[in-house]
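Researcher: Next entry: Nyctalopin (Microcaecilia unicolor).
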Amino acid sequence: MMSVLTIVLFFIRPIGAVWACARSCPPHCLCTQEKSCSVLCDRLRLSQVPNGFPCEASLINLDKNKIKFLSEKAFGTLPSLQCLSLNHNNLSFITPGTFKGLPNLAELKMAHNRYIRYLHTRTFTALTKLIKLDLADCNLFNVPDRIFIDLPFLQELLFFQNNFRRIPGAIRGMTSLTHLYLERNKIEAVAYNSLQNLGNLKYLNLQANKISVIHAKSFQGCKKMEDLYLNDNLLSQLPEGSFKELRHLKTLNLGGNFIRNVSNAWFQDLVELELLYLDRNRISYIEEGTFENLSSLVSLHLNSNNLTSLPYSIFKPIYFLGRLYLFRNPWECDCEIEWLKEWMENYRLVRDIPCSSPNTVAGVDLSKVIFHKSPEGVCLDPSEHNTTSVTPTPTAGLHFTIERKLNSFLSKLLLHRGNLPDSRNSSSTFSNFTGMEGVDDGMSSGVEEHGRTNLTNYLHIICIMAHIVTIRLSKR
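Model: Predicted structure:
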């Protein structure tokens, strides 16, 4: 009997909760049983927060409305509310105490409210269970230093696409913070104390800012960091030991900066690093030993730099590298990178390496370059004259000499009498010669005609011989 009653209560309780959620749904909103009780009021062109949310609500979606103002305790008392979304509204002012009555709220989304320029210190008072806060693209220039003092469990903070010129001091000491998104701001530097006491921070995104300076030991307190993005900034140099103690770092992105030389002191402690991006810089020199401790490296991006050479000694310690990206560099395909061609052929981990020099192989992919060996087995650089000029073969030279001598002989035969025309065009010469008329008496005419006939025959024979010689020489 008790088991039957338990089963009946198991089915009645959810049905009652769903009915209660739908019964007290605000006008024009949709209340569903999704996540126990979800209240969907998005895209209704609302200018203010509606009244009468069901007490059982666990999610409220007010995205893409026209709400401008949030009053104190704007949502009433909702003890079951876990997620509140106010993305894409026209919020310009949030009254301190707005979120009172939401003791169990875990996720608050207020992204893409372009008119929020200021937040009061007590804006988030009472949200002691908050885990994720999204304030991306809100046109914020700064936030009060103590604004997060009452959020002991906050783990994810999304501040990207605002107007911060420095990393907000409010995040210092947030020991629970694991993910911090600050990309696409106007941050100019990472100070030595910017990330102070963030011992649990695993993910930090600072890409697409204006960072030109990173102070020494800036990341020393972030010993659990796994992903660090510093790409697309203004960095030209890094202090030695910049990433010291980041032994758990898996991804480091330094692409899209102005780095020229890579120091072997930068990555010494990154024993678990898997992805390293150094692409789209101005790198022309990598110091020997730079990658020697990166035993976990899987992918290395060096494309779009100014590298001309890559000595084997730089890569010798990397045994397990999965992919190496080297395209868009002005490679000098000499013997110093012959090892790279062999690596391309043996492991197929790198491709697309067009040569810029020497001239004989310019534009040719390294995989197609042939490195010749000396009798002693030493590699020889591609010669500057292998393909750019053509040296006549002995046959071709002989052909040219015989042809020149035959032409000279023909000219002398045709010009042995002063009354014969100049032989400059062979076809016109033969035409003029065979059409000559005899003059004077018969004897002289007969003798001269006989001489002309013999000369004509000789010329035909010589032309045939020249043609035969030419054909035979061309076949050799």
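Model: Note for the record: Helices lie at 2-23, 312-315, 338-347, 394-414, 426-434, 442-475.
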